[in-house]
Amino acid sequence: MIYRCVPREVKRPWGSLPGGVGEVWWVYDDPEGSTLLNPLSGGSPLELASIWSDTRFPLVVKTLHTGSDLSIQVHPGYDGGYPRKDETWAVLEGHGTILAGIVSGVDRDSFATALDAGNAAELLERLEAFPGMTLHLPAGTVHSLGAGLSVLEVQLNCDVTYRLWDWNRTDTLGRHRMLHKDQALDSIDWARNGRPEFSQGPVIHGGDYTLERVQGPANLGPWEILFTGDEGACHVSDGAGGRFHAPPGSWKVVFTG
Predict the structure, then answer these.
(1) Do the beta carbons of residue 35 and residue 9 sit within 8 Å?
(2) CA 82, CA 6: separation in Å to the nearest integer?
(3) Which domain holds residue 179?
């Protein structure tokens, strides 16, 4: 059976949607709850956690909507340890800048010095983002999503993020967001200078999952996800799977781990 996901809106300091919403969570399963699902065949809504038999659903699917730059950050687990957070971006709308990866010749000490001086962004690779662009960010990748973009994000179900720099941003009370310099520096994959991965073709391989462009009749296997970008909706199949017609701008997400 296929279900339509009821999204959760989350406010962020950089959010561009009304009310400061920066993230729309389509598929999630965390201590605060899990995605509310409406069966396409009719019937009462139910939570993802009530039909997923394992401890926690392994993936999170969001859209990000940026009115300003996200913090410069990194996720742990590049060495295969726990926690581990890989994520993948597909740009849906807008043109802007993505910072991802440290430029050649910069080591840990010089990057740490730049952080203290507030100019670490100058040591990051700058990518011009456009609709259809994809980018895989394995654990250990240094990255920041720029302003003016709407992005589909697929990630492992881990909520650990280490902020290196947040542009001296403050909240309404004048407080800075917490930074995690030492943990973040330890979490960077220095062997590849914290750089992202790029995929050619319709399928983006995210290690434990794939993200694939689809259109037209689509078979959804057990626990596969279909984000229909042009419709602004997301669907998930249960253990029986199902069949769906994917409109233009759709992405299928498959957990392979």
Answers:
(1) no
(2) 30
(3) 2-255
